[in-house]
What does this fold into?
Amino acid sequence: MEFSGTKPDVIVLCINYHDEMPYIRNTMHALTGLTDADIKKETDMNAKKKILSIGNKKWKSKDVENWDNLMEEYAPGLYDNYRAVGEKEAIEQVKQLQPEIIMMTNRTKGVLELLTKIKQIHPEGAVFVTLADAVDDEQAAMDEFKARGAYKCYSNPLSVDTLVHDMYVALNME
It folds into this structure.
């Protein structure tokens, strides 16, 4: 039996309780032929993805609301948004959350060093960098970010359609 695509509600329920209730796991294996690896993959695909946005100062509540609403509009129910201020908090959040997506700008203090540290701690995280401040050589700056592990770099103005599409690609969801 194959379950790529839409699954019946009972299977989703079983996936959610798979680890907590062994009898559900055994029943699910018997009914579907899915292995533990298949079930973990389905569970991971259905879990909300974490976005960590890193900045130099605390976000204004209106900016937080705008970003959260934007992500919900473009990708309903897909992302949980988190924020970190400064290098120390960013490193702590990366270690704790293991976010799938990490957002930062070239305004972030010590951004190149921070990017290097993040990739050492959490190499699986897809780091997206926006060149919010003008630079002399935009392509050279983007090349440096990519050399340090950035998944994608953007210049302003940033297209939300492009960003959301690239996030889907980074998560192997497209």
